[in-house]
Amino acid sequence: MARPDELTFAPLGGVGEIGMNLSIYGLGNRHQRSFLAVDLGVSFGDEEHLPGIDLIMPDVRFLEKERNNLVGLVLTHAHEDHFGAIIDLWPKLGCKIYATQFSAALFEAKCAAERNPPKIPVTVIPSGGRVDIGPFNVEFIPVAHSIPESHALAIKTDLGTVLHTGDWKIDPTPIIGQPTDERRLRELGDEGVLALVGDSTNAVRDGRSPSETEVAATIKKLVKAAKGRVAVTTFASNVARVRAVADAANAADREVVVVGRAMERVVQVARECGYLDGSHKFRSADYYGHFPADKVLALCTGSQGEPRAALARIANDDHPQVTLNKGDTVIFSSRTIPGNEKAVGSIINNLVMQGVEIITDREHLVHVSGHPRRDELRDMISWVRPQLLIPVHGEALHLAEHAKLARAAGVPKVLTCRNGDLVKLGPGEPGIIGEVPAGRLYKDGTILEDAKSRAVVERRRMGFAGCAFVAIAMTEQGELVDDPEVDLVGMPENNAAGELLDDIVFDVVVSTIEGLPKPRRRDPDALGESVRRAVRAALNEQWGKKPICVVHVLTV
User: Fold this and answer.
1) Does the reported pTM lie above 0.85?
2) What top-level class of enzyme does the UniProt entry assign (predicted)?
């Protein structure tokens, strides 16, 4: 094997965006490198811009090509934006996966819920443990976050140590799991850290994130004061919040009913891993109607307005077991992710119209972020004292603010990059030395498509301007056999003057055919293209939009 002479970093997702995280570290020379992947997550589709697309994933063609040199995939934690793409993309990579117990158990439960999941082996590493993966020694350093067993990764090599923070915050009282391990991070700083690759999500927010313990106290008060039924919605993976809700229900003499598959799955895994020891057994949704209104609390999925999740169905009054009425209370123990405001607002409006009281983090401390604010970022820098800092996990503004803060904190070198940039970390002067292929894959039903796929592009256009279908039957001599068939989908029936668009398009098709010379009429491809252009032009003139136009020419 070639003698290692460079340590490199390349983000393939999660930089310039929040979600879809995938980072790779390379060790070796320009002809032969070993690669270590960190996280493999998803983003969620936006119906307005990507109709029908469920999930967005990083394009892994570079790692596919380097499959024989990919020594492993390490998971920092089990949020969907960090591990949600594994089931779909692992078959392209085939590498070993390393994770701690909770992440491995949640991944196993996720696989069990799939119809035909690939058999994906996961090696479980204890929290705080170390493992050699090819030429990389990886240490799992506990950090506080909004899911159990989140870890920063100390990636040690012959050329230096990189601290990959993953998602983290400083919370001395996190309810579940260990607080961020300040002592170990300070030790790491004493040993020397070449680069810190760090979470930038809250780099625009001053101060410090409040503690989960403060949220738990607020929820306890609110549940105790509530008169009727109570429903709480939160991210299913936030086991500390689930625990806080369970304790609040217990203090108010209420039974907890779990509503939603994702919540059921996380609760089961959390119990298996011991994170809900001592809390009362939760009930299934079937029991909801058996309890008096002041003796039940529904713990629901759907905090982001997901249309098929429990809360949306409850708000639409079409959930088979759970209903809410005037005088009941819904607590949104969550933050609305940008892009989901409309969906969440629709659910809130439906609940308000039913007389339900809504409580959000605008009025009460019912949610805190799992990411570090500016003072916490300064603390991390002072503990670790890196030679280089690279902001990741954020949009352009977050990355820029994190970089500015790091420079002000005295970090010798700060470097911002984009997905696909190949960064040399050492030895010598760090910098961007090239590019690797990067992009997006769209999950469309059960099929993975790339960003330029016909289906994705055409569906977006159809959503904007509909589709015109024209069927023409011609004789071999170039004469019409019968009237053309015209079908306009997703368009107005009439133009501004009240004339039927179908009739206008029909006339355009006939006049276009009749106006063509015989040789073009006998050529199905030439005829179809002429009609397509004419129909699009006519609709643009009448309507101001150019739809997709599909022309079928049949020769008989």
Assistant:
1) yes
2) hydrolase
